[in-house]
From TrEMBL:
Residues 109-212 form the 2EXR domain. Residues 365-379 have a biased composition (Acidic residues). It comes from Mollisia scopiformis (Conifer needle endophyte fungus). Residues 408-418 have a biased composition (Basic and acidic residues). PANTHER family: 2EXR DOMAIN-CONTAINING PROTEIN (PTHR35910:SF1). InterPro entries: 2EXR (IPR045518). Residues 359-381, 400-437 are annotated as: Disordered. This is 2EXR domain-containing protein. It comes from the Eukaryota.
Length: 437
């Protein structure tokens, strides 16, 4: 076997050929020559020199940027002082009222109350909607402690909100406290939600439920999401839930834009999502893995994920089409048979991003719309088989009964104090006629 030796210049000139048909022994000899220690040392030295050069250039660039920032901050400080002196002189010489009247451009508006009510309400509405849409995460503020009896009542209520990463926590919008009109408008946009706050179990935060997104996901099982457990129990119980649970659940059910992991959607009855009566958009979240069971237990898990749309005809685009088709069929079947007046929300899918570099590279490669799904390399049949098995939309009654005992047990049979080893609770059969779903 022979080959043509082709040499490329470092400067990028065309390849040069020696006009000789080299045999395998000759090519091997050339490889042996390149394997010498001194040549390897030269290669390492050249690469180290490049790294040092790039590091020096990076440091110089950062120093230049730091100097420019320092210069800008100094100029900003000087400008701030100049403007401060100007307004201070105006107030000293003319008083506040005259200063406000003659300052151009005006920095106050004192005749807002004279505007027509319709215009005032429009201004309050625009001010209430000025923040960009955010994504919030539903999490659990406590878990059932290990080692406690099966019927031990939980000490917390329903799910709480974990604000978006780097989000400034402002529990109460300022417009709530301006006047009655502004408060009335704000309460149409914001809803008080239970939020994560160490040592403050009753903490609330007003969140924009008009167009903010809320994500239920990142856990192995849907039972890790207390809100979903509470909704299922309420649908299958004649006993009312505890008042704090019910109140916070009603707040969370005002969500209009909901994101849910695929395995959560697949496991639960579709009726669960009809409980969100104001739901406008229901988005099913996919993970960029080859199997459906790979969740957050991977190097790429992030508690604050981002979500991206998928490319049509790509690997994840085809998955999205399959998921949406299944979801439409399930939603429409429930509407026909059980909830004819239900307005089915808009259905969508997104891909949850990951941090692991290797997996992120696979994600980028898989977005090629020209990839052939029949190729062995692009074979995704295993994922579809697993996903189809997950799509049960049903929770067995025995599991529902178990969830009731763990999360919302009945009262004691007697009010006498008893040791934990002999706790006796009234069972469902003694308090309820049966289940609703």
């Amino acid at each position: 076997m022979a080959g043509i030796l082709r040499v490329h210049s470092v400067e990028g000139e065309d390849a040069r050929e020696l006009g000789h048909d080299f045999g395998m022994d000759e090519l091997g000899e050339i490889d042996l020559f390149h394997a010498q220690d001194w040549m390897r040392a030269e290669r390492i030295a050249r690469r180290d020199a490049l790294v040092r050069k790039q590091e020096d250039e990076r440091k110089a660039f950062e120093e230049k940027q730091a100097a420019e920032r320092a210069t800008l901050l100094g100029e900003e400080s000087w400008v701030h002082e100049e403007y401060t002196l100007q307004i201070a002189r105006q107030i000293k010489d003319n008083g506040i009222d005259k200063t406000r009247k003659h300052m151009v451009p005006a920095y106050t508006f004192t005749r807002f109350g004279e505007l027509p009510n319709e215009l005032q309400l429009r201004i309050w509405s625009m001010a209430a909607r000025s923040n960009k849409p955010r994504t919030h995460f539903l999490v659990e503020d406590a878990d059932i402690p290990d080692g406690l009896p099966l019927y031990y009542p939980r000490s917390h209520d329903t799910s709480t909100i974990l604000p978006e990463k780097d989000e400034e926590t402002n529990d109460f919008p300022v417009l709530l406290h301006v006047c009655q009109a502004s408060r009335m408008v704000v309460l149409k946009v914001y809803t008080p939600m239970p939020r994560v706050a160490p040592n403050h179990p009753d903490a609330m935060q007003y969140l924009n439920t008009l167009y903010d997104r809320f994500y239920i996901g990142g856990q192995d099982s849907w039972t890790d999401h207390q809100l979903l457990v509470d909704i299922l129990i309420r649908l299958n119980s004649t006993r009312p839930l505890p008042k704090t649970v019910q109140d916070n659940m009603e707040r969370l059910l005002k969500i209009r834009f909901l994101l849910v992991d695929f395995h959560v959607f697949a496991a639960l009855p579709v009726k669960i999502w009809a409980e969100f009566e104001q739901l406008e958009k229901f988005t099913i979240v996919m993970y960029p893995y080859d199997e459906t069971g790979e969740w957050e237990n991977t190097p790429g898990y992030s508690p604050f994920p981002e979500f991206v749309n998928v490319t049509q005809r790509s690997k994840y685009g085809r998955r999205a089409e399959w998921i949406l088709k299944s979801a439409r069929e399930s939603f429409e079947a429930v509407k026909r048979s059980d909830i004819p007046k239900w307005t089915i929300p808009q259905l969508d899918t997104v891909l949850r991003t990951i941090e692991d570099n290797d997996l992120a590279g696979n994600l980028e490669d898989s977005s090629d719309p020209n990839s052939d799904p029949e190729d062995e390399e692009n074979d995704d049949s295993r994922w579809y088989q697993q996903a189809a098995r997950l799509l049960v939309h049903d929770v067995p009654r025995t599991n529902i009964k178990q969830l009731k005992k763990v999360h919302h047990p009945s009262e004691f049979k007697t009010r006498e104090s008893k040791p934990s080893s002999s706790l006796e609770y009234v069972g469902d059969s003694e308090t309820e006629a049966g289940v609703l779903v």
